[in-house]
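Proteins fold. Shown next:

***
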Amino acid sequence: MKLSAWAPAALAVSATLVVAACGSSSSSAPSSGASSGTSSSSSSSTSSGSAATTGFQGCMVTDTGGIDDRSFNASSWAGMQAGKAADSKVGSVNYLQSTTESDYVPNISTFVQRKCGIIVTVGFLMGDATQTAAKSNPNQKFAIVDFNYTPPLANVDALLFNTVQDGFLGGYLAAGMTKTGKVATFGGQQLPTVTIYMDGFWDGVQYYNSKHGTHVQVLGWNEQTQKGSFTGDFTNQTKGQTTTQTFISEGADIVFPVAGNVGLGAAKAVQDADNAAGSQKVNMMWVDTDGCVSAATYCKYFITSVEKGIVTAVSNAVEGAANGTFKGGNYIGTLANGGVGLAPFHDFASQVPSSLQNELNTVKQGIISGSIQTPTKSPV
């Protein structure tokens, strides 16, 4: 499966994420083929009526962060919509929302019963439920975001992203931009798809220190010990705000939350610090998507976003299933294939020194060539 670079994905996000983030995509109850068992589930379609039961259906099961997490769930939904827009064979795209992990299996089963053309599951935590359903239904096509299988499954398009690479770039950039010599990162839950970003961020800072003779500290994570700060979920913005306030009080002036919607709490803490008289200037980086699109209210505080190309990957999976080119197996997004990368600097375009931008390009090429190693304890 060939992925285009991030630019088309960013355009797809800008066209669709705002709808998902506001929760205003046209919604309906599940069609007659759906189970009514879990009241926590909902269904949504890009069409104006009820969820279609004829023609090719692209179906998605969210993780607990929900469709408007401004992160990997919202990006996946944007990819579903992009797939529909790109291929006339896709009659509808729909989702069921998981509010707890116990919703995974019934939501997947609902879509199996509905005979969806492809079922896209979102998140590392859905790996086992997706595998079980795929093995029980070998003729059903699946895709999963943030997970892959050994050995690969022929009926699952497994989409994983080597975000240690762009996390490394984010850490290098943060080390080059900090004024206090302290930066911070924290996660929602200690999962491999979270800590891989944090590993990269930590090592990017260390690499900058080695090249410049500096001593920038990383609060909230240590790649070597695999110990750090986690809020425990991807939804509690208050926890994100208090965690970030603690980092700011300890001197961090750049914060990188890897926590979905929890990151909005971090952004609020950064905003409050910026508004406080006499406070140090604090900025941050967003994760998964371009924050200046998905969390635009806080764009002025985002130096960049450490992205993964979920929109394009999911869109390709939906299109492949619809047009008969679906192959299954494992895909890994990298800097080399455009599956991961840093977002534009937006408001910081004139503030990131050209010398630092040149260094980032050099580091990027070194990661691609393998001359610069990006260690991680997480599986890739």
About this structure: The first strand starts at residue 27 and ends at 28. The mean pLDDT is 87. Residues 192-212 form the longest helix (21 residues).
